[in-house]
């Protein structure tokens, strides 16, 4: 379990994943060395990692939420295979270990081909069912995050950590030249300007300028990978809901205010709203479903898929030496 400094560090990194440890330490009331040491410890013990990610819209991509059901002996192998792909994130085993959930990014231009959706999956042995749900609008997730990670710092501390933004944020679409930079940031969002310059072949000044451009335009955002069990959250579940179209936006916005939910999105498919619940234990999940979610009018059906294990989170799998 994390103490107040650890939790403050996690909250600070959600505000600005590249904030210097000197600034984080000053806000938390500790030295820069202590903040850096806590970060290294949480990397090793809790899977803490800052990842830089391209906004799907700026990258010309659409996101799909894939549900695959597989025979028990092949589900884990399939989940690991999906996790190693560069076009997947949030690969999870759910529903007793026979269901795989994954977010897949595909090009908006269908002429580029949707290899995973249309070709690779049907040829994989052991799969008994497949459904793909296009993520139409994300209410919580991506640049936003689960409130259980960001309920520590005061408004004044948040203000001190929030990165300064230029008066105007010009549109800055991603280019081919950005791919190497984004790949490096996806593996380590806190990589130094010197290491990013080495990876890209640019000067540190050029790297710093391009980072500012991409962040200010919304083309690049930073997220956190963390094992939420260290925050006391041991029960997670995907909630698949059917809501009348006229009520969809109202219900989704109401759910976005629920502190128990780390992800809320409107989707295509037989169910049109999906959410991820993060709770302390099964009893807390039951309480949320029966005493809070059930009070929200407009939800006609609800399917709950408990998450057993996260195989891959927001960032790519860690590189091996």
Report on the structure:
The protein has 321 residues and is of the alpha+beta class. The protein is 35% helix and 28% strand. It contains 11 helices and 10 strands. The chain has helices spanning 4-15, 21-28, 32-46, 72-83, 115-120, 155-161, 179-187, 193-200, 204-217, 245-255, 282-291, and strands at 49-54, 61-70, 88-94, 99-107, 127-140, 220-225, 235-243, 261-267, 273-279, 299-312. Helix 8 crosses helix 9 (204-217). The longest helix is centred in the N-terminal third of the chain and has 15 residues, at 32-46. The mean pLDDT is 88.
Helix content: 25-40%
If helices are DSSP runs of H or I spanning 4 or more residues, what is the number of helices?
A: 11
Q: Major sheet: size, sense and barrel closure?
A: 8 strands, antiparallel, barrel
Terminal Cα span: 30 Å
Structural class: alpha+beta
Tally of extended strands? 10
Please describe the structure with a list of short key phrases separated by commas or semicolons.
alpha+beta; 8-stranded antiparallel beta barrel; 11 helices; 28% strand; globular
Secondary structure: elements and pairs:
Elements: H1 4-15, H2 21-28, H3 32-46, E1 49-54, E2 61-70, H4 72-83, E3 88-94, E4 99-107, H5 115-120, E5 127-140, H6 155-161, H7 179-187, H8 193-200, H9 204-217, E6 220-225, E7 235-243, H10 245-255, E8 261-267, E9 273-279, H11 282-291, E10 299-312
Antiparallel strand pairs: 1-6, 2-4, 2-5, 3-4, 3-10, 5-8, 7-9, 7-10, 8-9
Helix pairs in contact: 2-3, 8-9
